[in-house]
């Protein structure tokens, strides 16, 4: 078992009006090691907040989050985090970005670079090792960001709408790469997305959150075999079922 | 990311050439302005050759640049260090804010009487005045740079387990670098101004001193040489910092 989320609520207090906003309410969820779990829900439902709480960027107002039995209070190298907008360090070239986390943890640079090159090759970016982030396309940047997190051998990977800014082709390609890498390394993946199709394509479980205050509405287990086919009737049915589940909140 | 590439190009030479021609026509050829009011280009060139041959110009220029760089170095060490600390700690910034706001608008020249009392004559007072003139722009732009560090980059580093000191050295410092350099670029211009004014009051060497003494002797040619040399030094410093800015593009 990797993550145990117990009675978690998060209340934000705005700076000027002192108004309280309940972002999440009474979230209870257990996520098992090696699972690929997606979080979907209407915009503003707190799915990103939940992911940030699990990483430890913020702490819950009530309740606890445990990672392998340990209460999460701050970010850790055990939990990789991939942001929506790549967040590469603009002053470092591609390879130095990739080995950033390894360097932080005091690993020897020469070995790091060798490993980084292997990873870069696996996503077709070997020739871009010396380039700087501003010279790359969005898809390339996100591949670098993904490798930068994966190379650290963290037990889990938290992805916050990491593919949402990309065009469809790049997105589909990256989804396959992510799935492949994660299968090979048996990581637990928590994946926040607003793209139901993407969630069904990748996930073992899909957690649907309700509108604010965010609560868990329903959990879908996706048992379709990999590699999944978007044209399968079963796939399509699932996508529309989950889409309807979310649309309920959007209406009123 | 700004484009600095077009700051220097060939077309820029046109206006200076036109101005020199007008200057030559009014002051030298038609003698519309008497020499003691403003010298013509031939006078200036003669003085320039004189000052070069005697080695005086070289010595004064070196003296002035030395003071500028020395004062800048001290101002950079203090300004960047405190800029990072104050940018990092909201409490420290609040604590220092009023003192900085009061000291900052004081023209560096106002420190001249005290600087002479404290540091006597020689380069001490000049370096002090340069320091007072430069430390605030460097401090303020460093604080600004730290504040403008993208919080997502800090979070990215945290997700790799970076400690606070690692975040400071690996994220905040490199991220603020462009702001620090533009602060230095502003400061070096101020340093030059402070040096010259300082040399005109409490000094016996440097370009400022040369300008003052030559005017007293009605050697206006040398005065203009001094003024133009300051301009040229300014351009060279500006060019160097522009080149540095081109390299740090983020």
Protein model, in words:
The complex is a heterodimer of chains A (252) and B (250). Chain A has helices at residues 47-55, 94-98, 100-104, 109-122, 138-150, 168-185, 196-202, 233-251, and strands at 3-13, 20-31, 36-40, 62-67, 70-71, 79-82, 156-160, 188-192, 205-209, 216-221. Chain A has 252 residues and is of the alpha/beta class. Chain A has a 6-stranded mixed β-sheet, sandwiched between helices. In chain A, a hairpin with a 6-residue loop joins strand 9 and strand 10 (216-221). In chain A, helix 5 (138-150) packs parallel to helix 6 and helix 7 (196-202) crosses helix 8. Chain A is globular, with a radius of gyration of 18 Å. Chain A starts with a strand and ends with a helix. The mean pLDDT of chain A is 89. Chain B is an all-alpha fold and 250 residues long. In chain B, 79% of the residues lie in helices and 0% in strands. Chain B is elongated and about 75 Å long. The mean pLDDT of chain B is 91.
Short description:
The complex is a heterodimer of chains A (252) and B (250). With 252 residues, chain A is α/β, with parallel strands linked by helices.
Largest interface: pair, residues per side: A-B, 24 and 21 residues
- Mean pLDDT of chain A, to the nearest integer, reads 89
Over all CA atoms, what is the radius of gyration of chain B? 22 Å
Share in β-strands of chain B: under 5%
What are its keywords?
heterodimer, A: 252 residues, alpha/beta, 6-stranded mixed sheet, 4-stranded antiparallel sheet, 8 helices, 10 strands, 36% helix, 24% strand, globular, B: 250 residues, mainly alpha, elongated
């Amino acid at each position: 078992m990797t993550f145990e989320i117990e009675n978690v609520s998060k209340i934000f207090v705005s700076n000027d009006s002192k108004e309280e906003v309940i972002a999440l309410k009474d979230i209870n969820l257990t996520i098992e090691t090696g699972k690929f779990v997606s979080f979907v829900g209407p915009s503003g439902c707190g799915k990103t907040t939940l992911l940030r709480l699990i990483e430890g960027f913020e702490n819950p107002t009530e309740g606890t989050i445990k990672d392998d039995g340990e209460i999460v209070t701050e970010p850790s190298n055990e939990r990789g985090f991939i942001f929506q907008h790549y967040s590469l360090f603009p002053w470092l070239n591609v390879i130095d970005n990739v080995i950033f986390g390894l360097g932080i943890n005091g690993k020897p640079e020469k070995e790091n670079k060798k490993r980084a090159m292997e990873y870069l090759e696996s996503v077709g970016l070997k020739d871009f090792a010396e380039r700087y982030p501003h010279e790359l396309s969005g898809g390339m940047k996100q591949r670098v960001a993904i490798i930068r997190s994966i190379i650290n051998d963290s037990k889990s990977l938290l992805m916050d709408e990491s593919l949402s800014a990309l065009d469809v082709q790049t997105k589909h390609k990256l989804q396959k790469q992510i799935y492949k890498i994660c299968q090979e390394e048996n990581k637990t993946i928590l994946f926040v997305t607003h793209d139901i199709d993407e969630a069904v394509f990748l996930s073992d479980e899909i957690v649907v959150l309700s509108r604010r205050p965010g609560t868990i509405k329903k959990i879908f287990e996706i048992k379709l075999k990999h590699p999944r086919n978007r044209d399968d009737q079963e796939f399509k049915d699932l996508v529309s079922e989950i889409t309807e589940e979310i649309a309920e909140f959007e209406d009123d | 990311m700004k484009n600095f590439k077009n700051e220097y190009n060939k077309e820029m030479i046109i206006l200076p050439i036109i101005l020199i021609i007008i200057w030559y026509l009014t002051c030298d050829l038609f003698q519309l302005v008497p020499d003691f009011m403003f010298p013509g280009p031939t006078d200036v060139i003669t003085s320039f050759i004189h000052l070069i041959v005697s080695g005086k110009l070289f010595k004064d220029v070196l003296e002035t640049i030395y003071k500028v760089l020395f004062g800048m170095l001290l101002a950079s060490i203090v300004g960047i260090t405190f800029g990072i600390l104050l940018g990092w700690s909201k409490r420290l910034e609040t604590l220092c804010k009023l003192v900085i706001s009061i000291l900052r608008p004081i023209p560096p020249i106002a420190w001249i009487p005290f600087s002479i009392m404290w540091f006597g004559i020689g380069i001490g007072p000049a370096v002090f005045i340069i320091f007072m003139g430069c430390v605030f722009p460097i401090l303020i732009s460093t604080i600004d740079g730290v504040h403008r560090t993208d919080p997502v980059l800090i979070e990215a580093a945290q997700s790799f387990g970076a400690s606070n000191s690692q975040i400071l050295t690996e994220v905040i410092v490199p991220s603020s670098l462009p702001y620090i350099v533009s602060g230095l670029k502003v400061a070096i211009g101020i340093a030059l101004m402070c040096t010259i004014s300082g040399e005109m009051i409490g000094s016996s060497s440097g370009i400022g001193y040369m300008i003052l003494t030559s005017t007293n002797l009605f050697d206006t040619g040398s005065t203009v040489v001094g003024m133009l040399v300051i301009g040229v030094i300014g351009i060279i410093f500006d060019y160097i910092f522009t080149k540095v800015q081109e390299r740090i593009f983020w």
